[in-house]
Structure formats: structure tokens, C-alpha cells
From TrEMBL, chains A, B:
Pfam families: MerR_1. The keyword DNA-binding applies. The keyword Aminoacyl-tRNA synthetase does not apply. It comes from the Bacteria. InterPro entries: DNA-bd_dom_put_sf (IPR009061), MerR-type_HTH_dom (IPR000551), MerR_fam (IPR047057). The lineage of its organism: Bacteria, Bacillati, Actinomycetota, Actinomycetes, Kitasatosporales. Residues 1-68 form the HTH merR-type domain. Keywords: DNA-binding. SMART domains: HTH_MERR. This is MerR family transcriptional regulator. PANTHER family: MERR FAMILY REGULATORY PROTEIN, REDOX-CYCLING DRUG-SENSING TRANSCRIPTIONAL ACTIVATOR SOXR. One of its GO terms (molecular function) is DNA binding. Signal peptide: none annotated. Gene3D superfamilies: 1.10.1660.10.
DNA sequence: CTTGAACCTGACACCGGTGTCAACTTCTAC
DNA sequence: GTAGAAGTTGACACCGGTGTCAGGTTCAAG
């Protein structure tokens, strides 16, 4: 498929897809005229790239990681170096911390929402434990 | 306390603290000479600000939210408008989605780590279910 | 008074994925 | 062959919290 379809199917802008390619995250055949041609595997790969971006990894690290991952219909490619495994483990720990932080942030927000919602009604329910404040 | 101590105690750079103030997230008294003077409550507030930043909220929204939150020793300040409550709820949902995404990313990474670790040893354990690929 | 640490303001730069525009080429369907 | 959709490369800009440097002022201790 060509870039337009891939963009549509993966939900990622053409701009980003070209960027991914420029970063070596996404390979493509080229038509005689120079148009990119992607296989079915590309959709899955783009989704994976997005997941990694969302996790806060940068292009370079993703570029090193991807060749070590099995694409849906591509066999295993390369083996990760011990160094890379270490880095990935570190990333995973970072994600874990991030999730924990987000959970805390969520609580902060939740508290705010609760306080905000209860606020205007506070005078009507003086028995609320929050009314002390 | 002054900005240096606050930075030390909250683990946030002085630069950021000044920025927070410029965005209206953090108030300070000023000494006759113009030096910022913070109360104990500031530490807690800065931590909260960080939590909100970590959650992906921008300064403006945090600025609107903070006055509605009870500081540790400050009483309740303002009541949130229904509009703000809506926005916050939306933010919370966004955080939930973000956490879910991160969990998925974590799995992607985990899979990669597993594959990478198992990779070099694969030839030694041909009975592995992954060996089919 | 003096000295050095701490603080002040203001400005510039960065990151890095993405949006967008321009100018041009290729593809496809008629 | 020709029009219009779709693709190409290249360049510029943005966001927005943070690092950092410069040049000057204030504070606190001797």
C-alpha cells in the first residue's frame, strides 16, 4: 500500500510516517517513480512505534529496538545486545515509575474534582468530614 | 523560606520555581530587597504542581485548578466552576487512557526484552514455543 | 565595611515529533 | 493526452518547561 492508505489505516499522519522512515524506523520499497510502497506489516509496525513513542522512548532507541522485535509476519531479525537489554529494562522501569506517577496525579485530580463538586454544595451538608477545613 | 531552600526541599530547580510563579501557580511574599519568601505550604504545592505537570496538564489549566484545591494548611479557596469540573474530568479520563497506553507500551517493551533475552539462547532450547518463528 | 553566597531579571536555546506550506513529479482514470 | 488526486522533498515554525549565562542587587556573617 502507499503512504496515504497506511496513514489512514494506522491513524498516523503522512508527515509522521515520512519522519519515521527518515529515522530508520520504517522501511519502504519505492515505485519506479519514487513513491513509497509498504507491506501489510507496516500497519502493525507503525502502531508499535506509536506505543513506544507514547512510552517516552526517543527515535534512536526505538531504532535500535525495532530490529530486535519480531514483526507480525517477518521472522525474528536481530538479537539484542546485552547493552540494549539493559537499556530496555531501564526503560521499562521508567515506564513503571511513570505509571505510578500518573496514578498519583490521577488521585490529585480526583481529589480536586471531588472538592470542586462538593464545594458549592458544602453549605448544604455540614456533616461532611471535609467541612472541618 | 527562600527559593534556594524550597528548591532543595521540593527537588525542583530554582528556574522552574520562578517559572511557576510567573505562570501564577506559586505565590510568594517579597522581602524588602525583593527576595521571594515562601511558607511551608509551598513545598506541598510545588509537589502537587509537579504531579499535574507529570499528568500532562499545561500551566494555564493548572493555574485555574490550583485555587480550587485546598493547600495543606490553607483553607478551601475558590469553588470550581462547572466548566472547570468538566475539563478536569476530561483530563482524568485522558490520564486513564494514558495509563492504559503506557501499560500497553510496557507490554511491548516486555515482549521485546523477553525476545531479546531468549534470542541468543534460542538455539539451546529448540522446544521453546517461540522457536517456530 | 567588606566579602561571598544567594537571589534578582531578562534573554537565548533546546528538544523532537508534528503541522503546514511550497514547488514539483508521478500515478490513474478518462 | 490530460486533468486531478496523490506522492515527493525541503524548509520553517511551534510548543512549553527547563538549562544556562550575564550583569546587577541583596543578604548575612565576619
Amino acid at each position: 500500500m502507499r503512504i496515504g492508505e497506511l496513514a489512514r489505516r494506522s491513524g498516523v499522519s503522512e508527515r509522521s510516517l515520512r519522519y519515521y522512515e527518515s529515522q530508520g524506523l520504517l522501511l519502504s520499497e519505492r515505485s519506479p517513480g519514487g513513491h513509497r510502497e509498504f507491506g501489510e506489516w507496516a500497519v502493525d509496525r507503525v502502531v508499535r512505534i506509536q506505543a513506544l513513542y507514547a512510552a517516552g522512548l526517543h527515535s534512536k532507541r526505538i531504532a535500535r529496538l525495532l530490529p530486535c522485535m519480531r514483526d507480525v509476519d517477518g521472522g525474528p531479525n536481530e538479537f539484542a545486545t546485552a547493552r540494549l537489554v539493559d537499556e530496555l529494562t531501564e526503560e521499562r522501569d521508567r515506564i513503571d515509575r511513570m505509571i505510578a506517577d500518573l496514578a498519583r496525579s490521577r488521585e490529585v485530580l480526583d481529589e480536586a474534582i471531588a472538592a470542586a463538586s462538593a464545594g458549592p454544595a458544602r453549605e448544604a451538608e455540614p456533616s461532611s468530614p471535609r467541612a472541618r477545613a
